[in-house]
Amino acid sequence: FLHDDLKEMLDSNKDSLKLEAMKRIVAMIARGKNASDLFPAVVKNVACKNIEVKKLVYVYLVRYAEEQQDLALLSISTFQRGLKDPNQLIRASALRVLSSIRVTIIVPIMMLAIKEAASDMSPYVRKTAAHAIPKLYSSHLPLDPEQKDQLIEVIEKLLADKTTLVAGSVVMAFEEVCPERIDLIHKNYRKLCNLLIDVEEWGQVVIINMLTRYARTQFLNPNINESLLEEGSSGDKKFYGSEEDEDEDEDEEEKEKKADALAMAKRKPYVMDPDHRLLLRNTKPLLQSRNAAVVMAVAQLYFHLAPKAEVGVIAKALVRLLRSHSEVQFVVLQNVATMTIKRRGMFEPYLKSFYIRSTDPTQIKVLKLEVLTNLANETNISTILREFQTYIKSMDKDFVAATIQAIGRCATNIGEVRDTCLNGLVQLLSNRDELVVAESVVVIKKLLQMQPEKHSDIIKHMAKLTDNIQVPMARASILWLIGEYCEHVPKIAPDVLRKMAKSFTNEEDIVKLQIINLAAKLYLTNSKQTKLLTQYVLNLAKYDQNYDIRDRARFIRQLIVPTEKSGALSKYAKKLFLALKPAPVLESPFKDRDHFQLGSLSHLLNAKAGGYQELPDWPETAPDPSVRNVEVKESVPEWTKCSSREKRKEKKVEKPFYSDSEGESGPTESADSGESASDSASSSDSGGSSSNESGSGSESGESEDGSESDDEEEEEEDEDEKGKKKKKNELKKPVQESERLETLPSNDVPGSNAAEAKPSSKPVKKEKKEMSLLDLDDFEPAPSPQVTPVNNFLSNSLVTDLEGLSLSDSVLSPATISPSSALKNFELLHRITGEGLSVDYCFSRQPFSPDANMVAVQMQFTNNGAADTKNLHIEDVKLQSGMRVKEFPEIELLPAGETATAVLGIDFCDSTQAANFQLCTHAKKFFVSIQPPVGELMRPVFLTENEFKKEQGESPAAPSAGFLLGQLWIFKR
C-alpha cells in the first residue's frame, strides 16, 4: 500500500508531492530497504523541471540503474539533455547515472559525455568525469586498446587540471586504467605535490600511494651509502661451522666486492633530488591529519622514501593513532610491527605506548606483544620482562600463550637474559593451567637446543611431566628433547619409552611419530635395554590407521634393524638420526611482510590482493630529472592574450605609474630586483616621453630611452612570432604580475626629485606585517608626518608607498642594501645542522646592480663555533629551467663568533620554485634551498589617472596588476 501511495504521488502534477515522494524513497534506500519496484514511476520524472526533484531522481537512478538497465536505457536521451543543464549538480548527476548503466551499446555515448565533461567549467563535473573513467574502463574496455587510448587522453587532460577537487579523482582513474604510463605524471608531479595539502582526504591517500611508487622509480635510494657500508662491513654468516672456518673459506672475490662497496660509498656522497625533497616536505604536515588513513599513507611514504635520519618523525603520529578504536589500532600495529623489525630505534622512546590494557581485544594484545618483543634490547629488557610476568596472569589463554612465546623470543635474541627466562619458564611448569604448562614446554624445548649440556636437570624435570601433560604438542616436544639428548639422561630415557609404549595406541598422531623417533634413537645408543621395546613400538605402528605412521615405522625398521636385505643407508643410521641439529631461530612473523607496501591490504593479509601493485626497487642510476620541468609554453596561453592587451596599452600610455628604475624588471622579477642608476636609464616602457615630462635624468639617459622606446614599438608587433625573451619580459610585466598579486612589497620608493619637492607629504609608518591588497579596509590611519629624505630610507608598508606617489619619473639613486629590521628573516641553515655555522637570509627589496632581472637576497653568516670557517661559497646549483643564480664572492675567512653578509642574486623566472644549491666551507657541504614568498616577486608599476581610466575602459573584466595599483592610487587620493 505504501508503494502504491508513492506511485500515485509521483504521477501527480504537483512538484511538491513528487518532491515529498522522492524524499521518502531516498530515505528508504538509505535505510537499506528495496525500492526497485518503483523504478518505472521514478524514471518518468527524470525530465521534471523542478531541480530538487531531478536531483533526487538521479540519486535513485544511480542506485538502481545497473539492476534495471533496460528501463534506464529508455531515458538515455533525457540524461544526454541533463549533460547540458545549467546546473552543475544536474550535469554531474546525469553523467554519474550514464556511467552506472553497464551496457556496451552506450559506450560511444559515455565516451563522448566523459570527453565533454572533462572540459566542463565546473570542477565538480570534471571530478565526476574522472570517476566515470574507471567505471567505463572496468566494465567495457579492457580489451579495446583504441578506446583505452581515448580514455588515457582524457586522463592526461584532467591530470593537468589545477583544481584540488579533481586531483584525487583523476589520480585514482590513472591508477585503474594506465598505472604503467608514468610519463603522464612527470609534468604534473610538482603540481600534485603542491596541491596535496588542500586535496580531500580520500584523494590525499590515493595521491600519496601513487607518488610513493613514482618516487621509487625516479629517485635514488637516500640510504644508498649506508646500505653499501653495511654490506661491506658485515658478511653473510654461514649456517654451519665456526667463525674461523668462515674467515678461512671466504672467497677473495667477496672481499674485493666489499672493498669496492666501501670505496663507492666514500667516493660518491648522496645528494637528494630537489623533487624528492619537495615530496617529503609537502607530505610531512599531513602527519597532523585527523584522518588515520592519511597519516598511515604519509607514514608508509616516509618509511619507503625518506633518509634513515628523517623517518623518526612518523613514530609520534602513529602512536597517536593508537588512541583510536580497535580497527584502526589493528591496522596501525600491523604496520608498526613491520617497521620495528628494520627501524627499531624510532619507536623505542614510545615503549610505554605499547603496554597492554585489560580492555584491549585479543588481536590488539598479540600485536602489541609483537611490537614490545621487537623493541626489546639490553637496556629495556628488564622492564619488558616485568610486563610479561603480569600478562601471564591474564584470563585470556591465547594471550598468555603468545606472551610465553614472546618470552622465548626475547631469550633467543638477548643472550644476557636467556638463563633468567629459562628459569622463569621452568617455574611455569608447576602452573595449574595446562595450556600455560604446554606452551612453556614448547618454548623451553627451543631454548634448550642452544645449550643442552648445561640444562640436563631441566630435561629430567620435563620427563617427569609426561604423566600430567596431555596437550599433544607439549608431549611431543618432551619426547623429542629426551630422544635428541638421551646421552644426558641415560637412565630416564628408557623408562620414558616404556611408559609411552603402553599408551601408544591412545596417543595423538604427532605424539606417536615422536615415540617412534625416541625408540629408534634409543635402539642406536642403548640397544641392550631398548631392543624389545623398539620392536614392540614398531609392530604397533605397523598396523596403525594413519599411513604416515605406518610409512615411518616401515622406513625406520629397514634403517636401524640390520637384515640381509638392508640397504647401504643402514650403515649411516647413527649419522642420520643423531646428527647435530641447529637451534631454531625464533623470528617475528612480520619479517616476511616487508616486501609488501606498508598500509596496503596485501600487507595486512600477508598475501597479494587483487589490484595490488608491487613497490618498485630503487634505480641504480637516477633518471633524467628534466622530464619534470614544465615548459614555459604550457603556462603562456593566458599571458599571450594579456600581452596583446599590453601592446594596445603601450601605444596609449604616456606616463608610467612608477619611475623608470622600477619599470625595467621583467615578469619573472620580484619587486626588489631593480637596477643600478647607470642601468635604470637605459630602458623603460615609455622612457622618452616620461623623461621629458619630468625634466630629470641625464642626457644620455633621455636619448637612450627615446631610441629604445622606438625599438620597442617596432618589435612589439612581432613579439609573438619571434619570441624574443627580452621583449617578452618588457611587454608582459604588469599582466603576469596580476596572476600572483597577493602581497605587494612596500620598499620601492618613487623618484627622488618628487620626494625632495614634497618631503612633508610622506609620513613614515613602519610595520613588520606585509599588507595584502585584500586588506585595504583594515588600514589604520597614517601617523603624523616625519620629514625624511626619501633616498635614505626604505618604506615598510604599502600605505606609505601609496601615499607618497608622485608623477615624477626621475631615477632613484641606488641605495646600499641594508634591509630594515621590519623585513622578515628566514633561516637557511641552523647552527646545529651547520655544525656551528648559521645562515639567515631576507629579501632586501633593493635593486640587484649586476643584473636587473634578479632578486637581491641578503645573506647573513654567523660562525657560532670555536674554529674559524674558511672558503665560504656555493656550489652545485640545481635550478628549474629558466632560473639563474649570481653567486656572491667567496668569503675567505669567517672568524669564530664573527658575522659576515653577502648578497646573492636569483632570477626565479616568474615562479615560486626553490633555488637549490650547496653551501660549502673548506671542510663541509650543506644542501640548502631558497623559496620565495609570492609577495617578493611583485614589481611596482606607475599609472597616471588618465592611463588608469584608459586601462579600465579597455579591459574592465580582467584587470592587470597596473589596473589594481591604479585603483589603490585613486583610492588613497
TrEMBL record:
Biased composition (Low complexity): 669-700
Biased composition (Acidic residues): 242-254, 701-720
Membrane-related topology note: Peripheral membrane protein
Predominant location category: membrane
UniProt keyword Disulfide bond present: no
Name this polypeptide is given: AP-3 complex subunit beta
InterPro entries documented for this protein: AP3_beta, AP3B_C, AP_beta, ARM-like, ARM-type_fold, Clathrin/coatomer_adapt-like_N, Clathrin_app_Ig-like_sf
Biased composition (Basic and acidic residues): 643-657, 731-742
Domain AP-3 complex subunit beta C-terminal residues, every copy: 766-913
Keywords: Membrane, Protein transport, Transport
SUPFAM superfamilies: ARM repeat (SSF48371), Clathrin adaptor appendage domain (SSF49348)
Subcellular location: Endomembrane system
GO process annotations (BP): intracellular protein transport; vesicle-mediated transport
Protein family according to the UniProt entry: Belongs to the adaptor complexes large subunit family.
A family per Pfam: AP3B1_C
Sequence segments annotated as region (Disordered): 231-259, 615-770
Gene Ontology CC: AP-3 adaptor complex; endomembrane system
